[in-house]
Write a structure and sequence with these properties.
The protein is an alpha/beta fold. The protein is built from 13 helices and eleven strands. 41% of the residues lie in helices and 11% in strands. Strand 2, helix 5 and strand 3 form a beta-alpha-beta unit.
Length: 382
């Protein structure tokens, strides 16, 4: 059993040097032909950063798309999360509650904001930290809590309004890590950060946006991401440079032009997986039916031994996989000293979850091959 756990830990952090016949991901950004009209606008304007016309248009289209008051773009989601925490002025050095079941960037952003990650468990069904769970955890906090960072796992929907209520009740800074949730996020009072990384359903290479209904909060975030300037060249508050270039905005605008077809591609891939997978493998509820995301993360009903055997078998068959969140934040060397709650659910999820190949033009024939291999391997697990 000890040996199997060591093998599992290796799989959590594995970077695959081999090229798989069916890789886990093949991002597809807008073609050069789609970009050309926007690039010509940049040539005509000769403005390349600092909130040029393409950036402003991209923000406006995002506000319309999400029907939200305020949106600002930034260089990436990690810096976006950090800026959004700082803009809400939690006490420096206080704890930020964050689920262990998330990507390492969540905790890194907390450190960048001057807070300490307090790593907590998630709900077994939704795989999320809920507002009710956060209230319960606060009663047993190991120190002063200044902020909370809920996460929308792999783009799954979340109860955004419950976090508005929580934020009003507690007065704590809250930022929702909605990195993969372009299709499911419904911005409200609580700020959310959505990644525009190349691996997401709307990808621009590197980038992100922050959205909420509080214009004043967005203004403070903009200031913290633009050298502390506010209508002058004087730096008023400590800040960084987190602006998005006009070239990245061009990719975003071209991506929005293609959004419906891109979304349909991801929906169709998830639907095909749902049709071909058997009951020994679980997908997120509603994925492929009500919402789209750029990963297909499945759970096995078997033990850790099953996960190791299945992943190794898929690799031998030329099929790429990824343990997207590894073993949870608490298993990363960078965060082992962080305070934590009991993490039973997270450990169960880590020991049974992994990502299958997913990209918008992944063919039904390839999905059939993946599922056939998966079924065979699951049957063979002792």
């Amino acid at each position: 059993m000890i040996g199997e756990s060591l093998v599992l830990s290796t799989l959590f952090w594995q970077v695959h040097s081999a090229s798989f016949e069916i890789p886990v991901m093949r991002p597809c950004l807008p073609s050069s032909d789609r970009l050309l009209p926007y690039l010509r606008l940049i040539d005509d304007n000769r403005v390349y950063s600092n909130g040029g016309s393409l950036t402003r248009t991209f923000e406006e289209r995002l506000r319309t798309h999400f029907n939200v008051e305020a949106v600002t773009l930034c260089a990436n989601a990690t810096i976006g999360l950090a800026l959004t925490i700082v803009a809400q002025s939690p006490p420096i050095g206080s704890l930020c509650m964050v689920p262990s079941w998330t990507f390492a960037a969540s905790a890194h952003a907390i450190y960048l904001a001057g807070l300490v990650p307090w790593i907590v468990d998630v709900n077994a069904e939704s795989q999320q930290l809920t507002a009710d769970m956060a209230r319960d955890f606060l009663r047993e906090a190991p120190g002063q809590v200044g902020a909370v960072m809920p996460v929308m796992p792999f783009g799954a929907p979340a109860d955004m309004l419950s976090w508005d209520v929580f934020r009003d009740e507690t007065g704590l800074a809250v930022v929702i890590d909605a990195a993969a949730a372009f299709d499911t996020v419904r911005p409200a009072e609580t700020p959310c950060v959505v990644s525009l990384h190349a691996t997401k359903v709307l990808g621009i290479g590197e980038g992100a946006f922050i959205a909420c209904s509080d214009r004043h909060l967005i203004e403070r975030i903009v200031q913290r991401g633009n050298f502390g300037f506010h209508n002058t060249r004087e730096s008023i508050v400590p800040a960084v440079n987190a602006k998005l270039s006009e070239y990245s905005a061009a990719v975003g605008l071209a991506g929005l032009d293609l959004w419906q077809s891109s979304r349909d591609g991801y929906l169709n891939v998830a639907k095909e997986y749902r049709r071909q997978l058997d009951r020994s493998v679980h997908m997120a509820p509603g994925q492929g039916e009500a919402w789209a995301t750029s990963t297909v993360v499945v759970r096995l009903t078997h033990s850790e031994r099953g996960l190791v055997s299945v992943i190794e078998g898929l690799h031998a068959d030329g099929i790429g996989t990824r343990c997207w969140w590894g073993g949870g934040l608490h298993r990363h060397a960078a965060f082992t000293e962080c305070p934590r709650t009991d993490l039973t659910v997270t450990n169960t999820l880590a020991g049974s979850s992994f990502g299958l190949p997913c990209w918008p033009d992944l063919s039904a024939l390839k999905i059939e091959r993946i599922c056939a291999s998966l079924k065979r391997l699951i049957v063979a697990v002792p």
